[in-house]
UniProtKB/TrEMBL annotation, chain A:
<keyword id="KW-0472">Membrane</keyword>
<comment type="similarity">
    <text>Belongs to the peptidase S26 family. IMP2 subfamily.</text>
</comment>
<keyword id="KW-0812">Transmembrane</keyword>
<protein>
    <recommendedName>
        <fullName>Mitochondrial inner membrane protease subunit 2</fullName>
    </recommendedName>
</protein>
<dbReference type="InterPro" id="IPR019533">
    <property type="entry name" value="Peptidase_S26"/>
</dbReference>
<dbReference type="Pfam" id="PF10502">
    <property type="entry name" value="Peptidase_S26"/>
</dbReference>
<dbReference type="GO" id="GO:0006627">
    <property type="term" value="P:protein processing involved in protein targeting to mitochondrion"/>
</dbReference>
<keyword id="KW-0496">Mitochondrion</keyword>
<dbReference type="GO" id="GO:0042720">
    <property type="term" value="C:mitochondrial inner membrane peptidase complex"/>
</dbReference>
UniProtKB/TrEMBL annotation, chain B:
<keyword id="KW-0378">Hydrolase</keyword>
<keyword id="KW-0472">Membrane</keyword>
<dbReference type="GO" id="GO:0006627">
    <property type="term" value="P:protein processing involved in protein targeting to mitochondrion"/>
</dbReference>
<keyword id="KW-0496">Mitochondrion</keyword>
<dbReference type="InterPro" id="IPR052064">
    <property type="entry name" value="Mito_IMP1_subunit"/>
</dbReference>
<feature type="active site">
    <location>
        <position position="44"/>
    </location>
</feature>
<feature type="domain" description="Peptidase S26">
    <location>
        <begin position="106"/>
        <end position="147"/>
    </location>
</feature>
<comment type="function">
    <text>Catalyzes the removal of transit peptides required for the targeting of proteins from the mitochondrial matrix, across the inner membrane, into the inter-membrane space.</text>
</comment>
<dbReference type="InterPro" id="IPR000223">
    <property type="entry name" value="Pept_S26A_signal_pept_1"/>
</dbReference>
Length: 180, 186
């Protein structure tokens, strides 16, 4: 049957694409939305905005777990293992962190994470230092909305002019370009 | 003709590239979401696992229960993967001897939410939750399912046995350098 064959082909292609997408998302990088304002003004600078920031999370750092102070990381919550948080690493293993009452040493294999918006952030000041194995990726840049990402905005402007130039070369009537 | 040679070469290269990508992705998805083989060695799980090494299969699908032998990422070093047994789930009270070499003083801890308490079967020579505390659930990598037992490839189930194994062993320390069972991925 033609339809059955077609469905089977489509399913195979979708399955392969899905598996390759999952592998790229786990090994290279993925794009995740930032919810909440615990990292204001770095991410989500306006409260109650309808546009959440989308950030690029790279996964190459998980090969050897070497991080620097100041890296923004995505990690699984130590208490609710299905949740993921985005916070900044403030203390590396072996360093001393001063919390409200005393000075705490970050144990080996752990790190101290805090949100940039200290007023509303659930971080290591509540649940203590987190093991480095909980980290799921490092945030490198904001990819959406474009006004927060000058590279993406520049790219979109250049792409627009390139398409316009190509269409002129190919003698496409300029009115029909807008109808596409 | 030169152009058709490069065309054919380009087509072959893309076909091989796509095949390699498919195989790699399939292996990655199976290893990360279904089951993975591993090599467990070290003295801390005697008599369940032999100290000189066992080839095991660990699966990531089922929920943990008390008594499972699991592979976890060590909270002290994310590159190390010890194999231990789950002794307490969240909410359980576990008691342990704080320093067996010094005295018999014991402590009782309630395992906090989202954590598990793991101990090696050979408690005299095992670095486990008695040293590094309860382990967050997200650090658990998989539950041991099978073990390859003999030179002729024969599989046997790793039995869930909650009874203490101290009665089978003498209290002398083995003079080995490894302090905990380590697992190597292939």
């Amino acid at each position: 049957m033609g339809i059955q064959n077609l469905l089977w082909q489509v399913t195979k292609k979708a399955f392969t694409g899905g598996i390759i997408g999952v592998t790229i998302s786990d090994r290279c990088c993925s794009v995740v939305p930032v919810r909440g304002d615990s990292m204001s003004p770095t991410f989500n600078p306006q409260r109650n905005s309808y546009l959440d920031d989308y950030v690029l999370v790279e996964k190459f750092c998980l090969q050897d777990y070497k991080f620097a102070r100041g890296d923004v990381v995505v990690f699984s919550s130590p208490t609710h293992f299905r949740d993921r948080y985005i916070k900044r690493i403030v203390g590396l293993p072996g360093e001393w962190i001063s919390s409200s009452r005393d000075v705490i040493r970050v144990p080996e294999g752990h790190c101290w994470v805090e949100g940039d918006n200290k007023a509303s952030s659930l971080d290591s000041r509540t649940f203590g230092p987190i093991p480095l194995g909980l980290i799921r990726g490092r945030v490198t840049s904001v990819v959406w909305p474009p006004q927060r990402n000058c590279m993406l905005a520049l790219f979109m402007v250049c792409a627009f002019y390139i398409i316009k130039w190509v269409s002129i070369q190919l003698h496409v009537p300029q009115d029909s370009l807008w109808k596409l | 003709m030169a152009s058709s040679f490069w065309n054919i070469a380009y087509q072959q290269a893309t076909k091989s590239g796509v095949l390699v990508a498919k195989v790699y992705s399939f292996l990655h998805v199976t290893t990360n979401y279904l089951a993975f083989p591993a090599y467990a060695f070290g003295p801390s799980m005697i008599p369940t696992l032999h100290p000189s090494g066992n080839v095991v299969l660990a699966e990531r699908i089922s929920k943990l229960t008390r008594g499972d032998v699991i592979v976890l990422q060590s909270p002290e070093d994310p590159n190390k993967l010890p194999t231990k047994r789950v002794v307490g789930l969240e909410g359980d009270s576990v008691s342990f001897v704080v320093d067996p070499g010094k005295n018999d003083e014991s402590r009782t801890i309630v395992v906090p939410k989202g954590h598990v308490w793991v101990e090696g079967d050979y408690t005299q020579n095992s670095r486990d939750s008695r040293s590094f505390g309860p382990v967050p659930y997200a650090l658990v990598q998989g539950r041991l399912l099978w073990r390859v037992t003999s030179k002729i490839v024969k599989f046997s189930l790793v039995y869930i046995n909650c009874e203490s194994s101290d009665a089978l062993l003498s209290s002398e320390r083995l003079s080995v350098q490894m302090l905990c069972s380590q697992v190597r991925f292939w």
